[in-house]
Specification:
Number of strands of chain A: 16
Shape of chain A: globular
CATH topology of the largest domain in chain A: Peroxisomal Thiolase, Chain A, domain 1
Number of helices of chain A: 12
Number of domains of chain A: 2
Oligomer: homodimer
CATH architecture of the largest domain in chain A: 3-Layer(aba) Sandwich
Largest sheet of chain A: 12 strands, mixed
CATH class of the largest domain in chain A: Alpha Beta
Helix content of chain A: 25-40%
Largest interface: A-B, 61 and 61 residues
Structural class of chain A: alpha/beta
Order of helices and strands of chain A: EEHEHEHEHEHEEHEHEHEHHEHEEHEE
CATH superfamily of the largest domain in chain A: Stage V sporulation protein AD
Strand content of chain A: 15-25%
Chain lengths: 365, 365
């Protein structure tokens, strides 16, 4: 057994290697025009993904990403023992219907835009705990289905304040596996040493090394057009807890990458951590700011949605790890726990965030 | 490590003991008038739980159950490392706001009325995998918040077809822990050997021994007033998978207890299993049929909702295990993956169910 898997107050360490076996990022037109375009596997310029309506479009996008990541892992859906998936829609509409097309035991999860953090953590725990050799984490969001759920009819063309973010049309899927699954899939995988320039019997893998489960954090912010401010305290709290639990500083990470705090939220996040004595600016990134060119694309405060951090991770972030630009990152998807009902009733918007450690690993086999 | 924690095609076995340390069932007026009244910890005849509106009422009910189960376990909220919770409302409104009042790392889960199955499985995996010494699983539903979300305004007084179920106003919470946590909490716990009639250094515990993760199963049923028919195929499929994975028959269980199939669904469930060669009738129960007196209480096909199976488990079912009336049960919460949007758009209603093994254990310490 060796080292404990339970670390400090609210963290976990994965003591067996939990490998990223496959990954897929499937996005819509706007994301395909953004700075990360070359990192996405599929860009659908119609935003429809063959669906009959916007939630059906999101289901199909999610299902495409889930199936593609499995294929890129060199596996078949039946080899995946558990699928952890979630989205923003009421009753996980997109994931439930998307998962219905896949023959994989299904566990629905919800943490608003932090859902990829939760699903990755649970999918990793299932592998590291010995409950499954292979699992998958998938989340999605769709601009049009989110507007329908939370805001105004698209045709109304409502004005958006500058603090508002733009819901990403995208889905990210990650297949995880233990050493046995890695060895089984190695010959067929896309992210193999051969593809990534390894030589002979040496290659590069990315592992999920641990993480920190966040608490619901409510600073009383009620502005649903400023979700960055709602989520920043939760992100700062989970990063602080993480650094304490692992006895690390921000400098131990090449990047600390929040989900979708956006232009407003990242400043609050850095300020809050600064007050605790942690200087995060030198390594700080935000998926919501990476995925769009906010000036050219008029997205105001950046991207958001379960698909924002998920597609950025499955595309750009993991690419940087495989290439060796980064060796260790802290991935911190952030969520605003907002429902149309709670917002209309004037409730505050609590935030949540989870932190996941991803590491590059030189492998000899 | 010993025995594998991964069993057959889609099951898990918990090889360390995952103990039930505390449990609480908090319900509303109608449930308090039903046949299980003596097994509930708190009955609020106002159905309000001090809340300002129905979703707030549900949040407070959930929070009350979560806190009470921790207290009954002889623990404090800070000793719980992970809270797995979910409810029926869009964006897990009740759980998110309820969890915001508890200082526990939060993982939101959604599987419609099967959510207690999912949260128990994940909370058990976290303990058995060594990621946490103590976790908690909580789910809730509220008749009035569910009617608001899915059906008609209460004042409209809509007619209900006979196949319809009645959403339970209730929340069930279970605190789980490993051997260390059990020993730490033993002196303060309510469900100790002393309370339950054990003598000297011998007592009775209940453990979560394993489970089977279900798949989304869609037979194309579209009638949201007949959710039993939507869920029965998923329940039959997961029970069949469970029995195959563990090489067991229904007779290996004192009871196989579905969540909320209701009067219509239980017949379909038994028929489907019968076609596969499994005779489930002699051990079959359904929380939806246990919780109300359908004739006296005019609940038609029975109770439903995340809180139905959860409060029945935390109250009646666990009591029977502690008392020794049963030694091993299979708890199979069932969910209809229905959203107001999907239902109004004419989609089918897929079902999901998970199976959890609970065993009575004679302990000597």
């Amino acid at each position: 057994m060796g080292e404990s898997k339970s670390v400090g107050a609210q963290s976990v360490r994965f003591t067996e290697d939990v490998y990223v076996l496959g990954r897929a990022a499937v996005v819509g037109s706007k994301e395909g025009e953004g700075p990360l375009r070359s990192f996405f596997d599929i860009i659908d310029d119609t935003d429809r993904f063959g669906g009959e309506n916007w939630n059906d479009a999101e289901s199909r996008m999610m299902q495409t990403a889930a199936a593609l990541a499995i294929k890129k892992a060199g596996l078949t859906p039946k080899q995946i023992r558990m699928l952890f998936a979630g989205d923003l829609l009421g009753q996980l509409l997109a994931s439930s219907f998307g998962a219905g097309e896949l023959p994989i035991p299904f566990l629905g999860v919800y943490g608003a835009c932090s859902t990829m953090g939760e699903s990755l953590l649970l999918a990793s725990m299932a592998v590291d705990g010995g409950f499954a050799d292979c699992t998958e984490a998938v989340t999605s969001s769709h601009f049009a289905s989110a507007e329908k759920e939370f805001r105004f009819p698209l045709a109304y063309g409502n004005q958006r304040p500058l603090a508002a973010t733009w819901t990403v049309t995208g889905s990210g899927a990650i297949v995880l596996g233990n050493k046995t699954a890695l060895e089984r899939s190695r010959a067929q995988r896309e992210d193999t040493a051969a593809v990534r320039g390894g030589t002979g019997k040496q290659g590069v893998e990315v592992v999920v090394a641990g993480g920190t489960v966040g608490r619901v954090t409510d600073y009383g912010v009620k502005d649903k057009a400023n979700m960055g401010a709602c989520m920043a305290p939760a992100a700062a709290a989970v990063v602080e807890a993480h650094l304490k639990d692992f006895h690390r500083t921000p400098a131990d990470y090449d990047k600390i990458i929040t989900g979708d705090l956006g232009a407003v939220g990242v400043k609050i996040f850095a300020d809050l951590l600064g007050q605790k004595g942690y200087r995060v600016e030198p390594v700080q990134e935000d998926c919501g700011l990476l995925i769009y060119d906010n000036e050219l694309q008029d997205t105001h405060s950046g991207g958001s949605g379960c698909g924002c951090s998920a597609s950025t991770l499955a595309g750009y972030l993991l690419d940087q790890l495989y290439k060796g630009d980064w060796n260790r990152i802290l991935f911190v998807p952030t969520g605003a726990l907002l429902s149309p009902v709670s917002a209309n009733e004037g409730s505050s918007i609590p935030g949540i965030a989870h932190a996941i450690v991803l590491e590059r690993k030189q492998e000899v086999w």
